[in-house]
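Following the same procedure, sequence and fold were stored together, as reproduced here.

>
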Amino acid sequence: MKRTGRVFCDVFRDEKGFTSVGMALCLLLCLSLIFSAGRIYRIATKSSEIQYVADAAALAAENEIAEYMVVVRLCDAVVLSLSLTSLLSSGLGVVAACTPVSAPFSEPLLTLGKKISDARDRFANTAQQGLEKLQRALPFIASANALLVAQANNNGESDYKAVALLAPLEGTPLQMHSGDEIAAAQDSIDERAEDLREASELAEEQMREAREAKERAYMRDCGDDPAYCMSERASTLCGMRGAENPVFSTVDTWSFQVALERARVYYARRLMQEAPESDALDDQVRSHLRKQFYEYAVVELADGFVHEDIDNFDAYFPHLPKNTSEMRQTSLYSAACYPVTESETGAFLHAWTGCPQAAGYERFGSLEEAESQGFETCSSCKFSAASLGKVAAASTSIENGFECHYNAVAQAADEYQKARDKAAPTVQEAQDITSELLDILQVAFGAAAKSRIDASPPGSSGVVVIVVNLSTVDTREGFVSNFIAHSEALGTRVALSGATLLADPADETGSVIASMLDGVNSEGVGTGATKVVLTAWSHILQTYGQGQQALGDALRSALNALPLMSESGLGNWAADALTESIESVGLAPANLDALKPVVVNSGHVAKKESSPFFTYVCEVKSAVTQNPELANNPLSGLFSTVEDRTAAALQNMDSLEIARIEIFDGAVLFPIEIALPQPLKDLAGQGLAGIFDTLRSLESTFVRVRVWQ
């Protein structure tokens, strides 16, 4: 036994541990392992190829859900933009009613607002029906697209079939904003629009009187320059130049404050420059009396003021005396500033202390005292009330006098204020009506801004795709060898794959929305109000993702197209009020992130749906993971479930027009529709049903299969 053992060991090992027999046996074992590994690699490769196809099919199926969401957002953009444009048109109609020039635009704008609101309601109703139809068709479209992608991978060794099941299986019904707030707001505006136009027209007539008074004042202050006026007289008589003597080109840039400041500077300058023309007593008397007048004017004008804004005007232009009678009503008459002398014949009032007969004067008196007590007239200065009354009489009565033009401006300021006061109640009435209507519009804007289409279609949580390869593969090809026992060909394979949607910041959806109006030229669509509103809608639609900024830009553009200048200022006031009202809406930008399908574990998708099939998928995947022997028939009943869903969808494949936009009396008309590729149309017949029959017949053949992730 011992020798036998030695002989046996010597066959495989000699003294150096190496024999020919051992070498041959080692080579045989290595070759067997190499070819076995090659066979296993080929089997694994051919088996795993189906998973790549399943992943591609899952992405293709879920991509249809992403495209559906693009359509949803497009419809959302149209509904929201039409709602906002309708209200914007009504708001512009309110603003236009505030001025006689823009009033002809008011009624067309209000009418357009209601027409757009009606078009919005029609579109919303048809869009809801169309989106729900498309939503019901998604199971077929997703399955058909998955099948087409799978079949595109067929070659001589493959025969792929695929079906897709969406999670959730059914979408939630779409909710559309009814637009009742818009209709109610527009009805309220229609009821008060005529009242607003009448109040605005009356306010404009009354304010036109104020305008005429202001224009008269402007011309007498500087509008007539270089002819006689305050600015020309100030320049000629006392050398006023530049900023202290400005000249304005239009009444719109001029104000009463300009005239008041010019007069203040003028009289201060004249007081400083005043001197007798000669040493003659008469010239000295007249010079002193002019100083008295200028000093009085400086003091009086210091109390003058002008307070003016869009709603109020309050001014005080002191009126300077232009004759003796008016002088007696001023402080010039009552001021005790003239020397008084006494004599045996009576008392004398002198023009100033320099009068030759005023030497040794005892006190100062006034003209009022002199006339009431019967003072004698000085034979030298001949001073009396008439002397002082004549100082401004000449320059007030003729155009070459500064006082003539100043008094005209002061009189026009009084007339302007009276006209403004007369118009104030009417302007306030128009503002009250406008504010009431804009408050109603603001509520409607807020309701429209918050009403958005929020869709949750089938497949919004993801899709599970089942791909089957019906072809058989000879696993010996490329590895034919006697080292491996012959085996049967690789039979039918099956794989699951899952996909879901992830948001990817992009402007693709925005581009789709912006391109809606490509080819619609606002230049050729009507004129006047129609053109203004179409431009506003185009701006809102194209900047859908900018929210409040887009709405504000559209409003400013539309307001700039309206002639809102008026004497009452109601047009610009209403425009500002509408802008402020809309700015408070706080319209949030639309979410324009692109939804893109990504591959995920099918179990993650299945967990989001509680239907029996997805629950079954979760159970099978869990069982296979823990013990592959338990997966005797994981797809039992699957194909019938998918077929039921797609069969229901096929009933809605007659048309996929979502909605049709028709506004501006047919000037803008185009549909929103989904174009089905011809291969999908072909599958809408018996093609898909035949595939389900083939796959259902295979359910019983899946026994103890390996499920590829």
Residues 6-179+451-701 form one domain. Residues 20-96 form the longest helix (77 residues). The chain is about 55% helix and 10% strand.
